């Protein structure tokens, strides 16, 4: 009986530690992804694909708000479930969570963010496809490699968060609902500017959701007991 | 919004009668048949019917009725249709706002009626509520001028337009449409120049509204544009990557042709001529494959897609990329740099070549490209890469050496085979010893211990095996073991991290030499290196790669012959000396008669990391090291420090090599006296001091014997007792001076010697002061008064002065108070209580001597200044007369007087 009781109590602890380890790995991956997405956005800007400097001027207020959101205290203290309340890029968000619920808990937020990341991956693949179709454009190899890296890391992050959610399934209050997020994967308007703006919005979605996932995963990781130390003889 | 447009149209219609009133009736208004916009070209075509040939045309921006054109044009009717047609190019995109046009006929002097306004709607009509910018994705020449317009979204207000990051002044075209003009545009990047329009929302927030991209560039150039043939029949443009904008006008090859190139900004035509055979650009070989791939060679085969190639004299170049890959990582990309081998082959219609000098068991990637041998034009396209893998071959022979590390031990070593030597993955090594068993070792083994002695030759044979077979056997004969102590060992100094060796040629080295170097003192599995040299060599440089800084190596030179290797010479040294890693050992400091003897042992050889050149001795002083000796003889392991006083000392001893000193070993010592000195200082010195003191006291006492006698043994006069004292004692025989009377007064704390004087301890004195002395007289004076009499009030000042000299041991006061004659007489030295009692008894009939003194004695006021002064016990005169102004004598002055013999 005692051993059974111990195993009953040990199992949640082990699962919690496994969740902590998985959250730590995913958080690290999300941080890398966020850094790469930011780099990718910068590279697009440098290559003239971005909308700077005109847009940069217009976005200054938006960027400032976005940066202020990075303050750790605000991140950890005021990061609410209302993800939609965060500042939007020009033209509004491509990935929306209007139909999502259950984002009050950290686990619920992670579930929703995973769907958002899933849509981001689709948008990125659509972007890559549209650029590859334009055969006359000769891209820099470094940009292509960076874009590939972002795509791979994003894909891995989606898988790792799925694994984390599987470990944390007992903590999700309600049944995981399906894909509640929506993404606007068609270019609005015609002309090169519309394509550029859409590209910018896609990249911004990547930056935004990778950052959001990074903080959610960090919160999950910090709220867990540390992983058991490897025994040293 | 709709009402605004309607109002504008009504206004325009209302203008017509007004104009008509001023027009002549024989010039009717033209009948507009069509108003057609060409949006990409920004043109407006007007078609009308009229009998006139001269017309006034007005074009408005409909919403504000801003006249953008008011022109008189002469347009003749088309002969076939009888219609007039006129086209106007708008500086603004026609989508920017609605345009209205009307026209009237005119002759030389008069004008007809205006036709009704014809309007083409812009994109700013209320039905289109979004935001737009025009033109989109336009391509223009560098330096051209352009106009852009921005139509803001309904319910938003226009903010500004940026062109290349600069805000451009905008002109309002309509309620929602604004236009900017840019001039002399610079070339844009490949992604175009952005024009961004922003607006203010109803909440006042500025946001990006819309934008456009314009591509500003140049027309095509004519550099490097040529035509060539690929099929030996037709002409194709060169370079090939310009094919989309470049074409050779004549497809059939001729000696002359026209080359035309174009892009959205222009067209260029070139004429050139050349012979067909001079412009052959071969296509890539197809179906490249390897046939008969062996270990050292391979045959390559391919085919041609163009039949005409099969008879063409051509040169083919085979490029081999193989082995020894290295990589460079540059941020995100990995570039592979491969060894590139080029081989050229010639022949007619070449489709097969033999590749030789390949390496066994090697991966090669092969590409082929060919060109026409006749008037080489340029290399043709390269074939797709083809990968071949050569077969394995037997390994090369091993380099084997037998190292002796003892009389009965040794180890056979062999060098690993490189990829170029193994010719295939090794399976193992096979060893056999003369007269012994055979071994098979796995491929990771590179040595094997042996047992041997110097009595017989030992030969070990080693061979490597791979799947293709066994390598030729390599034999090594064991040299005789000779310890370092058995032969002179030269010191070897490294040069630039290597050893430079040279020797005299030896006749016995019929098969060359072997230089062997190994870390000194190593036994067993050591890093044994050797190099076999031809017999003609007499020098060798041991490269730094096999050496290690700060490690002592033993280098041996052997002569090879059919017999066992013969040791010719042995060196020992460091390729590069370092500072010792360990300080001297067992450093000790011993106190000697003359100072401190420091002794130590050198560090172990492994920690010396260089030849010890000497030692430096430091004395540590408040954190600083003061060099006190530099011992340049490394065999000296002690040093005596002299001239030290009794104190604590810290010494640091450092060994140094040519690279510098080590960290140093520290020893601390506290110098002390030895036992004899201790005995001398502890016993004899106090004794001698005491003896000297006694001698000094004795001398002083002798010299002052009179004074001592007077001070300590005064002669006390005998009392004159009235009545029953019939036989006075001897001292009383000495008659004092008739006018003098001696009273002996001693300070209380010194009175314990003499009985008869009343001791008045200080505490007791104080008690008496508290209890008895109501008139504040000092106790001593009171004592005096007790002896002399109770009425000596005039001497109180002198008594006080005597008391004030507290160090005065003995006070003699030859005082005869004027009141002493009133009844108080001499009192012998008795108990103070007795004296008190006697005082009571002799108030009226006591002893009253020396009444005559009163005549000779000074005035009472003169006596007060002499109180406390030393006084002869036999004289009533003060021995040290003092003036009334002098202060009472202090103890120090008294002692000074004592030493100077004054009494």
UniProtKB/TrEMBL annotation, chain A:
GO terms assigned for molecular function: ciliary neurotrophic factor receptor binding
InterPro entries linked: 4_helix_cytokine-like_core (IPR009079), Ciliary_neurotrophic_fac_CNTF (IPR000151)
Organism encoding this protein: Danionella cerebrum
Ranges in coiled-coil conformation: 121-153
GO terms (BP aspect): ciliary neurotrophic factor-mediated signaling pathway; negative regulation of neuron apoptotic process
Keyword annotations: Coiled coil
Protein name from the UniProt record: Ciliary neurotrophic factor
Automatic annotation (TrEMBL), chain B:
InterPro entries reported in the protein's UniProt record: FN3_dom, FN3_sf, Hematopoietin_rcpt_Gp130_CS, Ig-like_fold, LIF-R-like_Ig-like, LIFR_D2, Type1_Cytokine_Rcpt_Type2
Annotated spans, Disordered: 811-903
Biased composition (Polar residues): 811-823, 863-878
Molecular functions per Gene Ontology: cytokine receptor activity
Domain Fibronectin type-III: 580-674
GO cellular component, one term: plasma membrane
The entry's keywords: Disulfide bond, Glycoprotein, Membrane, Receptor, Repeat, Signal, Transmembrane, Transmembrane helix
Annotated signal peptide: 1-20
Domain of life per record: Eukaryota
Bilayer topology term: Single-pass type I membrane protein
Database matches in Pfam families: fn3, LIF-R_Ig-like, LIFR_D2
Matching CDD domains: FN3 (cd00063)
Subcellular location(s) per record: Membrane
Keyword Glycoprotein among record annotations: yes
Transmembrane annotation, as ranges: 678-702
Family to which the UniProt record says this protein belongs: Belongs to the type I cytokine receptor family. Type 2 subfamily.
Protein name, entry field: Fibronectin type-III domain-containing protein
